[in-house]
Amino acid sequence: MDAFEREIAARTGVAHAVALSSGTAALHLALRILGVRDGDDVLTATLTFVATAAAATYVGAAPVFVDCDEATWNLDPDLLAGELASRARAGRLPKAVVAVDLYGQCADYERINAACEPYGVPVVEDAAESLGASYRDRPAGSLAAMGVLSFNGNKVITTSGGGMLLSDDPDHAARARFLATQARDPAPHYQHSELGYNYRMSNLLAAVGRGQLADLDERVERRRATNASYRRALGELPGVSFMPEAPYGRSNRWLTCVTIDPRGFGASRDDVRVHLESADIEARPLWKPLHLQPAFSGCPVVGGAVAEELFRHGLCLPSGSGLTDADLERIVDAFRSTPRRTGPGR
Ligand SMILES: *Cc1c(COP(=O)(O)O)cnc(C)c1O
Question: Which residue's CA is the closest to the ligand 1 atom numbered 2?
Fold first, then answer.
């Protein structure tokens, strides 16, 4: 486990990495270490996986959702800055901001950090999907006060289940190790002044992770090549648009995502999804915005229309590192042969 931590720290350019049982555990510890608690607010992206925001509720805080930017599909830095300014005036600053690197593309951390710095609000980078990506030549995971990785089965590299908390601050790392191993005080007997968790990764899975990490570059190149193939095969179809790649960085293309405008394509996102399913090809809608999730009903949202529109029309295509050329051809053929209801795509 020590070796896996050192290798991930070197790879992501952070001083300290703490191996944990999941990315969700890493998000939970990050907020606890930042002192987020009962009654606090945490600003976070609405277009993301549930775990990004669930951590806030684990520590008794309330998530406040912020819409994404059309150009990157990530947390909109202007909306964030506006919300922080109005909260500063009202004396209701959030205790932390959790930004996410959606589908392997880094959020715009220069602008996000610049928006938060004047108020001293720390930023957590949920890099669960973006290991191997970069932002202005800096690695994903190293772009905020703390970074979170996941090695869940569906991520770019996996330990079947696992995660890591990344930070340059030695106190954060020491505190994460302490809390992840049941908060045991230094004493010959079992002594506990506060309560922690059983969140440490096992050595066995760390060994798997080291093997996987050696293949990271190759896997990222494969995912990027898959994305390029989809673009060549589907990019010219009317109504079909790909997730934009922001000019400030390089995505790992964890998933290739498209939006399908039914007026241009002649069939809806669900028409395509169901048609693919009939050919035994699994494709899923984008993350459902968290402000629309029943579990978060009543949580405030800043904007939301961009995420809702992306959810309405967005589809994640099969993107695993093991896809063959034959698989891709079959998927692309099935996509293209979706029966059209109307329009120029016919
Ligand atoms: C996968 C994922 C997580 C959670 O990671 P686990 O290791 O599955 O707990 C958190 N955030 C995002 C954005 C994810 O995609």
Answer: 128
State the pLDDT at residue 239. 97
Show me where the domains of the chain are located.
Answer: 2-213, 216-336
Domain 2-213 coded CATH 3.40.640.10: yes
Helix (H) or strand (E) holding 225: helix 216-234
Q: Which of 74, 67, 28, 76 is nearest to 46 (CA)?
A: 67
Q: And the tokens for 265?
A: 């394509």
C-beta of residue 21 within 8 angstroms of C-beta of residue 162: yes
Q: Decide the pairing of beta strands 16-20 and 41-45.
A: unpaired
Report the Cα–Cα distance between both ends of the chain, in Å, rounded.
56
According to CATH, the topology of domain 216-336 is Aspartate Aminotransferase, domain 1 (3.90.1150)
pLDDT tens digits for 247-297? 999 999 999 999 999 999 999 999 999 999 999 999 999 999 999 999 999
Helix axes 325-336, 269-278, angle to 10 degrees: 130
The pLDDT of residue 88 is 98
Residue 52: HSE in the Cβ half-sphere, 13 Å Cα cutoff: 30
What is the average pLDDT across 317-331? 95
Q: Pick the atom of ligand 1 nearest to 152's CA.
A: 7
Q: What is the CA(137)–ligand 1 centre distance, in A?
A: 24
Q: CB within 6 Å of ligand 1 — which residues?
A: 22-24, 48-49, 51-52, 100, 126, 128-129, 150, 152, 163
The residue whose C-alpha atom lies closest to atom 10 belonging to ligand 1 is 51
- For a mutational test of ligand 1's pocket, the pick from 129, 154, 316, i.e. the residue with the most ligand atoms closer than 8 A to its C-beta, is 129
- Joined tokens for residue 155: 């991520």
